[in-house]
Write a structure and sequence with these properties.
alpha+beta, 2 helices, 42% helix
Amino acid sequence: MITRSSGFSLVELLVVIAIVGILSAIGVTMYDGYIGTSKRSAASNTMQTVSLAQSEYYSNMGTYYYTSAGTGCTPSETSSDNIEEFLFNGADIITKESDFNMCIALSPPAGAENESGEEMEENEMGYVVVASDGKAKNPTNLFLNHDGTKGTY
């Protein structure tokens, strides 16, 4: 007796759905990692741009621009806007798409470590550009010292 199948069985469909689910979970995770890395890279590039603008500001004014004169600072939208206003004549350099806000302080924030894992000390003369994505869970906090030292805190 010959029987004809008129479609897929329920088990075959469930297997296909499970495979598609696993592949999409892996894809979303990889995509989120890619987006996070690209945002950190964009913030790092912007910090380099701010550092170059600081050199120009110092040449013109004889001092560096700070959003906070103490040790460390708290990056916010206001401090980012102030940096754009004073260093870039209002140009939108610190893009909102990167989800990072920035500020400029006299010294690194407490607990700041350079790329070698060494704790940073206060600057005698200079500045530190601080960037943070402000996330409550697993925030990304970056800094760039006036001498080009990068790190996290």
